[in-house]
Predict the structure.
Amino acid sequence: MMHIAFLLLIIFADGSSSKKVCSYQDVVDYLNLTTDNSVFKTTRPVLDHEHPTVVHLDIILYAILAVIEKTQTFIPVVWALMEWNNERISWNPDQFCGITQISVPKELLWKPDLIIYEMTEKDDSPKSPYMYMSYDGKVTAEAEMKVVSTCKMDVHKFPFDTQRCSITVASAIHCVQQIRLHPYSNSSRATQYSREVMKTQGEWDFLQLSVTSGNITFGDGMWEHLIYTFTMKRRPLLHVTNFLLPVLFFLILDLASFLIADHRGEKLGFKVTVLLAISVLLLILNDILPSMSNRTPLIATYCIVIFALMLLSLLETILVTYLMEKDSVSQEKLRLRDDREDKQETVKHQNCNTEEKRQTCCSCICKASDGEKQHEMLPVAQEVYNSIQSLESKALLLILEELKELQKTLNLHLSCRHEGGKFGHWATRINRAFFIFYVTTVSLFLSLIFVAWNT
């Protein structure tokens, strides 16, 4: 039994030692892939020049770094995969221990000269130095790119807008007879993959990635290209809270200012302050929106109309204040005239009293000279009569003064309503009519702008 076990151990040892060992370098040496061999990297890898190289391309959205409306720039991070067939490369996996795929440096093989038409800056993201090569000649290259591209944006519904930015991929010098571009994934699969690998979106919600193909004719040649369109919807919460709501709050404050009395200067100063605050917000809006746009943005219309309404409100306040001041001046003139007339009547009344007293004294002296006997006979009765007459005249004078004061107050009140108060009456009517117009216009405008933003 010990001899049999020893023989089996020798047999297994011989079998294990006879197993073939392979490495990736064996495949590279078999293909003669070296930096000095220019066969694989100088020309398009086809045995017949009339046979086109079919490149399968796949682009997946990895992140949305920025969408700049001012410069109309779209900056995404995409993951790109290219696959094509190199007709000069092939080996039998059975001869190399079942090796079907190896990775080689990108400098050793020819690569398609694909470019992005919308790209404005060179990609500075780190690149993978290797690509995969299969036994049947399929070559696969992967890359992660930061694309700084131009994008024609429509900011008409900002900040409730949806943007569509495209990346057009095509060969730089090879026409359609030499390189054919086919999408590796359709639109639904590309959208699904993008949502699965998406890392960051910023203020945007990614909606869809669509893939379309087309041809560009230039001169005598035709170039095939693939267009990847990214559809994104803006998240409006930041702009609503930082811009739209403050403007609406200022509009409400302007409406509330109608409760302030018109004859005071606080109302005019308050409206000017609110108007200046709207002007500052308009400057902020100018920094956000692009200078060139096909249509006027709704947010600009929103701000301009509210600014115009506040301006009309300020002009109306100035007019009403002017009418109130003019009414006050007329009332002051009327009061001064009444005071002057009262003084004149008082002076006349005093003169009359003095004349009456003088005549009474003269008559009394004459009567005293004619009837000295009678005065001597009734001195006590005469004194009582004179004192009673003096008290009655004083009481009548007091009653007359009170009646004049009442008449003066009544005349002033009537003059304010019929003569000097006509400016105040017009100011009240203008204020009431403008308030109704202001509330109606604001309600209709906000309803229309809300409908326009949501359709």
About this structure: Residues 236-455 form one domain. The longest strand covers residues 53-68. The mean pLDDT is 80.
